[in-house]
Amino acid sequence: MAALESRSPAGDPKKPEWLRVRYNAGETKEVLELLKKLGLHTVCSGANCPNLGECWARRTATFMILGDRCTRNCRFCDVPHGKAGEFLPPDPGEPRRIAEAARDLKLKHAVVTCVTRDDLPDGGASVFAAVIREIRDLNPETTVEVLVSDLGGNEEALGTVLAARPDVFNHNVETVPSLTPKIRSGAKFERSLAVLRRAKETGRSVVKTGLILGLGEEDGELFETFRAIRDTGCDILTLSQYLRPSQDHWPLARYVSPAEFDRYREEALKLGFPCVLAAPLVRSSYKAAEAMEAVRAADVHTFSKVFKE
User: Fold this and answer.
1) What is the pTM for the complete model shown?
2) Which of 214, 219, 224, 289 has its CA 20 to 30 A from that of 91?
């Protein structure tokens, strides 16, 4: 068994037992070899996700398009960032290779995210649309979830993604308004809400967003943020624990206990969210297919049972 955890940077609170994850490296070998063969990136490894072992053992992965370096440098994120002139143009063969990976993994639900590419005129929206089309061409029964950047506020680019009709459209708000300018490079809280609102107005996709806890947010503003998100019509809310990648990243304010996550989940459900995933190791794509089906079935109780098993 191998450890799938980074050491807490000096000065951070001691990592509690509920955040200690172990996995069998042999169970992830098949997925790793397939990704290497096809030349694909995943946010699982790119962002050092603690659920990599569990998800890869189940033959699922979250594909990351448009390269492995981001044009932004968010203070909480472990995905590498680059400088102007370091970025390659989109790989025209990448959408088809992702579709082939989805086929080979026999995915029933494919999740696709990206590095933020502010250097591209449409932020990579056309590549997202191509990936959706290719997955459906090769895997007609597979549902598709996309996790997009704010696309720099480009409404035409957002329309390109939505016109491809992903089954789930996700854009993460990440944190409360007061912390947004401090830790989200190039992002605006109200812009993220506008992205969610536009996605919901299309009426074609289940709409999803996520927040990271332990960054220094206060309960009052957190609950107001829940309300602002729900007012966009957003269907799924994920709440997860911030795990500080290094000493150079935003300081960890606290570890949020499982009991507190349960309390936050109940507060969010009171506002009318059809589905809320809240636990220390939850991430945007964790149990993504189950969450989508729960919203489609409008059965929160069924989802709660699935999520806690």
Assistant:
1) 0.87
2) 289
